[in-house]
Structure formats: structure tokens, C-alpha cells
Specification:
Elements: H1 2-18, E1 28-32, E2 35-38, H2 39-45, H3 52-77, H4 83-110, H5 117-126, E3 137-146, H6 152-158, H7 164-177, E4 180-190, H8 191-195, H9 205-211, E5 214-218, E6 222-232, H10 240-273
Antiparallel strand pairs: 1-2, 3-4, 3-6, 5-6
Helix pairs in contact: 5-10
């Protein structure tokens, strides 16, 4: 009921204040010391998914916060003696914001984000020490089969080798017998993805997998076979396929810096030619 009266009062107030001020087509809701909160401001933050009651509560809180902010700002203004320093900071921030916005627009319009694969790999090869593994990675093969699956002796032999013959046997076998089969000898994957598939219970999983390249486990229903062909611990050099995004970001940043350096130099040279710079 209090909220309903509040909104009714606001609507009546809006009619009166609209007759005295030019609000440029906006509908005022609240006035405080010449500051106006408009209906359009409230609508911009009011979610259409809220119920009628929730919308009223939101409006009440939003208006209250707006009023408190205006009062606090007015109080602060009257109690800050050195407003000139603040004005200087605001102006410096405004200049920086304008220059940043312009630079981003210029880069977006005139600078291509395309970088050749050769440039990416060249940079990676020359700077591999910059890229470190943050989460353990591995290459290998994994297969999960029921305890009752046939040819388990062969599976235990096949999964331990990377030969094409053994892989072919496992692929054919998995079509009919495996619950899960993952071949990743040719790509790096996160160790955590593998751990989600096996019931491995050891104090230090990463150290265990780094030292045990063939893992055989079972529970009450399944056998789990994992062959780790390669492993990268935290802190070791990151493989290119994982570092590629970071390499591209670094090269794009260098490209943008060089581009803006050239833009600034061009502006400077033009100013010099036009004798616009006056030194005293």
C-alpha cells in the first residue's frame, strides 16, 4: 500500500513539474534540488520478467537509492575543499577515455586481426619459455569395457602400444564391446578430462600419471585401460595447440601498438609541416 501511494504521488508530481521544465521528451518521476530521475531511466533497468509486485518493490528501492546518491553527492560537494584537483582528474580521465575509444575504433576499422599461421608458429618456437602449462596435459588412449567383455587379454595387450595394428584392433573391438573409447595420441587434452572417466584414487594423481604410463583399473562393473604416451606437468612448456590463442593475442597486441605508434607519428609530422607546434 505504501508503494502504491508513493507511485501515485510520483505520477501527480510529474504532471506538475513537467509544466515548468523542458525534459526533452522524457517523463520525470522524481525531482531533488533540480536533479531529475526519469521514467525512461527506470524502465531501462527494470526487468520485464519481474511480477507486478516485484516491479513495484524494485522501483521503490531504485528511487530510494537514486535519492540517497543525490543527497550524498550534494553533501560531498559542499565538504570537499579542493574541487579543482578533482576537476583536473576528471578532465584527465575524460581525455584518456576519448583517446582510448578513438584508438579502439581506429584499430577496428583499419587494422586486420588476421595473423598467418606461420607467424604464430615462428613466434611460439622462438619464445616457448614464455608459455607454461597451468593445468596438466596428456596424450594417449583410453578404453572402458564391462567386466564381462570378451577378449580382455587382447585388450590388455593392444592398449599398451601405439602401433596402427593395435589401434585398428581396439577401434574395431570398441564398436561392439566398449562403453567408452577415446583416441588422443595425436592431440593434447586436459588430464582432468581423463580423470572424470576413471576411478583413480591416489594421493597425487598428476605425479602418479606422470610416472605410470599404463593404467589398469576396475570397479564392480567395468575395466578401465589408459595408455599415456606423453605428459606435461604444471610449469613445463605448453604445447602449441594450447598456447596458440595466447600467442595470437600477444602478436595482435604488438601489431596494435605499432599501428598506433605510426598513427601518432603521422599526426606529429603533419603538425610539424603545418607549423602548428609552438615551442616557448
Amino acid at each position: 500500500m505504501r508503494i502504491t501511494y508513493l507511485l501515485l504521488f510520483i505520477m501527480l508530481f510529474c504532471v506538475a513539474c513537467s509544466e515548468q521544465h523542458d525534459h526533452k521528451g522524457q517523463t520525470p518521476l522524481v525531482e531533488l534540488d533540480g536533479n531529475f530521475l526519469y521514467k525512461e531511466d527506470l524502465q531501462a533497468v527494470l526487468s520485464a520478467e519481474l511480477s507486478k509486485d516485484d516491479s513495484l518493490l524494485f522501483a521503490d528501492h531504485y528511487i530510494r537509492n537514486w535519492v540517497e546518491d543525490v543527497l550524498l553527492y550534494d553533501k560531498a560537494q559542499s565538504n570537499i575543499p579542493n574541487s579543482g584537483e578533482i576537476d583536473k582528474l576528471v578532465e584527465n580521465y575524460r581525455k584518456a577515455l576519448i583517446m582510448h575509444t578513438y584508438q579502439q575504433a581506429l584499430i577496428h576499422q583499419q587494422l586486420s586481426e588476421e595473423i598467418s599461421e606461420q607467424d604464430l608458429t615462428d613466434y611460439y618456437e622462438k619464445n616457448q619459455t614464455l608459455f607454461k602449462v597451468e593445468r596438466p596435459l596428456m596424450k594417449g588412449l583410453f578404453i572402458k569395457v564391462p567386466l564381462t567383455a570378451p577378449q580382455l587379454t587382447n585388450v590388455k595387450r593392444w592398449y599398451k602400444t601405439k602401433t596402427q595394428e593395435a589401434v585398428d584392433h581396439l577401434e574395431k573391438y570398441s564398436l561392439q564391446n566398449a562403453v567408452k573409447y577415446e583416441y588422443f595420441y595425436d592431440k593434447w587434452i586436459l588430464v582432468s578430462e581423463v580423470l572424470d572417466m576413471i576411478p583413480l584414487k591416489v594421493p597425487d594423481v598428476d605425479e602418479y600419471l606422470n610416472n605410470n604410463r599404463q593404467v589398469e583399473l576396475k570397479d564392480t562393473a567395468f575395466y578401465y585401460f589408459l595408455n599415456v604416451s606423453d605428459y606435461r606437468k604444471i610449469g613445463e612448456e605448453e604445447p602449441y595447440e594450447f598456447a596458440r590463442t595466447q600467442v595470437k593475442d600477444l602478436l595482435l597486441n604488438v601489431k596494435q601498438v605499432e599501428f598506433m605508434k605510426q598513427v601518432k607519428d603521422d599526426l606529429y609530422q603533419r603538425a610539424v609541416k603545418k607549423d602548428e607546434i609552438k615551442y616557448y
